[in-house]
Amino acid sequence: MTLPTPTGFALIDAHLITNTPHHAGATALLVEHGRITAVGDDTEIEALALAAGYPVRNAGGATVTPGLFDSHTHPHWAADVTRGVDLGGLGTVADLQAAVAAYAATLPDDAWVLGWNLEFEPFEATGVRGDLFDDAVAGRPFAAMFYDLHSGLANAAALTAAGVTAAPVFEDMSEVVVDASGALTGELREPSAYQLVFNAVPARSHEAERDALRDMFRTLAAAGLTGGAIMDGKPRTVDLIEELEQRGELDHRLVVHHWHAVTDDDAAVARVIAAKDRRGRLWESDGIKLFSDGVIDTGTAWLHQPDTCGDGVHAFWPDWNRYREVVRAYHDAGMIIATHAVGDFAVNRVLDAYAELPAHAAARVHSIEHLEVLADEDLEKLTGSGVTASMQPLHMQWREGDDSDNWAVRLGERAATGYRVRDVLNTGTRVTLGSDWPVAHYDPRIGMAWARGRSTPGVAGAPVFEPDQRLTGEEALLAYTLWPALARGHEDRGIIAPGALADLTLWSGDPVAASADELATLPIAATVVDGRFVYDAF
Ligand SMILES: [Zn+2]
């Protein structure tokens, strides 16, 4: 098997945002063999291209930025969760039934009918009930996920196929919902409940799983993304990425962080470390992802003080020393460590654990993921820590302006210490932005718009959360381009300069000059990865 031969092209009549102090006023660039080899004016770049026999594309004044990189994403999981029909934006049960019926008609008689992106509003009158879809799927098993990934829906055929005949008792907050008569409604709350059903769905063929991952990367490219850090890497994820690249079908630049489960023993750690040098042209797999705590909404974030329900006082780890021990092992192996820390105390403890790691030649800059709430003392500890803060301000989309949402209720007054992106930046800490897709939408324009406006983009009068924490347009772009590159020690990424990798995002307008509202819907003209147009809407 061979990789497609990388060639070259020139892009002229472009507005370049280079993320460097050089090439002010440059309007053109030359790409050869996956790298930018020249930046200059139209005449000189066109001449270089013609001399080399490369095509010249006129960008028509489009803005070109370094390619956008999502610093926290789960595309493999997303490719699984988004199986079946997209039910987003359908406002009534009748609309949902029609969409499900149309999709079901394309499937074999014995197939499960799957869907995703359900919203709650259509069920206000009926309640969330699986039997609403029995006719639409002609008696076949039907299971669908709600957009928030916290709830699922199944009909009786699916519940039966999964062996769910009564409501089990879960140790966590999960619930198989029953009605007043004790009958299963089909509503499945939280992962332990909906996984009972989704685990019973017949596995996809290898080819179908691989192609779904390929298509997922192409979907991300259409939103301007050229790469991302996968935060739930499994050996299978790496296998599929490698296979896609060998087939010439990998259109995304990736860093895979292997998922370390709290229960993983020394042998598991050794296996991950042994595989850390697996890499390809577009990907590397030397990252690790660990959890230190959970999330605010379920009372599992680790906080300095308990939340208003008395929760939030525990780490994920029965023994915190085990966390320190495995972090040390991965660090000594030269891996880059990302630790999920939502609560302020979790951030504090992870900073302590990182601070005790020895400096050595292979040592990497580690990150903390989320940092959803921070006390002033945590900001002090971030100062000079050298750690990367990987944050997702778009997760504020679930907050309510009157603090009536579960997140704000549990935090009480501390809700005002949420998503302190500006404060973190002011400590001198490097900030990177990401989506956590499929937890939130992958679109980097929406991610940047939230970081800038701290409000739902495009909605007049929408509440603005802690406006003093807003980023500028330039900072939001840097946090999706140059800053994640520097955080990983890549000096040839996140910039437009001779020698840099040719990962580029082409915009119909200027994403920095556009308002946050405009940015969210600013059309992407093209996406270039490794010198190839992987999305092209010119
Ligand atoms: Zn995540």
From TrEMBL:
InterPro entries: Amidohydro_3, Metal-dep_hydrolase_composite, Metal_Hydrolase
Residue ranges annotated for the Amidohydrolase domain, each copy included: 56-535
Highest taxon above the source species: Bacteria
SUPFAM superfamilies the record matches: Composite domain of metallo-dependent hydrolases, Metallo-dependent hydrolases
GO MF annotation terms: hydrolase activity, acting on carbon-nitrogen (but not peptide) bonds
Protein name, UniProt field: Amidohydrolase 3 domain-containing protein
Organism of origin: Leucobacter aridicollis
